[in-house]
């Protein structure tokens, strides 16, 4: 990506204070991109900003507050002038047998993982349309590639993200806005640790069907997001890129 010192790109990374989001924010910041991280926990955001350096800025905001997302984007534009990259990374998971999941639990994950992505993307797309350029990168999951037990709501949400990626790309690409998706495999993060630690059978199954034989690391995802957001991917839109060590095609 060619970076002008006087006209640096501005990126938003949701859930950017930890895990895959923070790794992605670091990749962008390290490449001279002004990067705005969004999350609910101000303490974590401040700590992340200190670690990521002067290219990082933060907004403390709960993305479940859908009605105030337009105001959030207006504030970002007022402060930073434009938005060139949106990375929809924020998401929550819940490991629970299908028949024990309540309507409220299911809806909570759909609101955070789908509705917030829709609302934020819609508002950012309005800005990018006026700029006649921009790129959106969504984050899905291996849960959308094949069936995984005990994550019914998460699976539904990430399957929706992949469908939305394609639908958004068809509408927005003619307007100069590329939309793509990264589908992480099993990556060594706090979220995956909760799912795999204490469940050795599940962890062994993950590794046995991953041809590369190991969990990925957050930097693998960050590299893929950076590629899709960069000029190197200028003719790439509507794609879902698995970054999974071959897990999605493993036997």
Describe the 3D structure.
This protein has 251 residues and is of the alpha/beta class. It has a single domain, classed as Rossmann fold. The N and C termini lie far apart (37 Å). Helix 1 (19-30) crosses helix 8 and helix 4 (103-131) runs parallel beside helix 5 (152-172). Helix content is 45%, strand content 15%. A seven-stranded parallel beta sheet has the order 3-2-1-4-5-6-7, sandwiched between helices. It contains eight helices and seven strands, in the order βαβαβαβαβαβαααβ. Mean pLDDT is 94; it is low at 1-6. Keywords: Oxidoreductase. This is Glucose 1-dehydrogenase. GO terms for molecular function: glucose 1-dehydrogenase [NAD(P)+] activity. Pfam families: adh_short_C2 (PF13561). It is an enzyme of class 1 (oxidoreductase).
Give the overall pLDDT as a whole number: 94
Outline type:
globular
Largest sheet: 7 strands, parallel
Distance between the termini: 37 Å
Strand content: 15-25%
CATH superfamily: NAD(P)-binding Rossmann-like Domain
CATH fold category name: Rossmann fold
- The side-by-side strand order for the widest beta sheet comes to 3-2-1-4-5-6-7
Q: Which oligomerization state do the chains in this entry correspond to?
A: single chain
How do the helices and strands follow one another from N- to C-terminus? Answer: EHEHEHEHEHEHHHE
Q: Which CATH C-level class is it?
A: Alpha Beta
Give me the Rg, rounded.
17 Å
Tally of individual domains: 1
């Amino acid at each position: 990506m060619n970076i002008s010192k006087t006209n640096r790109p501005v990126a938003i990374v949701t859930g950017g204070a930890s895990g895959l989001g923070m790794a992605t924010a670091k990749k962008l910041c390290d490449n001279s991109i002004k990067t705005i991280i969004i999350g609910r926990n101000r303490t974590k955001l401040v700590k992340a900003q200190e670690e990521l350096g002067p290219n990082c800025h933060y907004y403390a905001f709960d993305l479940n507050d859908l009605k105030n997302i337009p105001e959030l984007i207006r504030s970002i534009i007022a402060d930073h002038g434009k938005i060139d990259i949106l990375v929809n990374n924020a998401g929550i998971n819940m490991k629970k047998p299908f028949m024990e999941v309540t309507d409220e639990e299911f809806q909570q994950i759909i609101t955070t993982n789908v509705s917030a992505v829709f609302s934020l993307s819609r508002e950012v797309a309005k800005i990018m349309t006026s700029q006649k350029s921009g790129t959106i990168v969504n984050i899905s999951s291996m849960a959308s590639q094949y069936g995984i037990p005990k994550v019914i709501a998460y699976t539904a949400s990430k399957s929706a993200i992949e469908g939305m990626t394609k639908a958004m790309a068809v509408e927005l690409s003619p307007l100069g806005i590329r939309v793509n998706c990264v589908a992480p495999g099993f990556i060594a993060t706090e979220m995956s640790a909760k799912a795999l630690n204490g469940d050795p059978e599940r962890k062994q199954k993950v590794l046995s069907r991953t041809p590369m034989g190991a969990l990925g690391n957050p930097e693998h995802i960050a590299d893929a997001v950076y590629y899709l957001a960069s000029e190197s991917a200028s003719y790439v839109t509507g794609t879902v890129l698995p970054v999974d060590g071959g897990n999605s095609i493993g036997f």
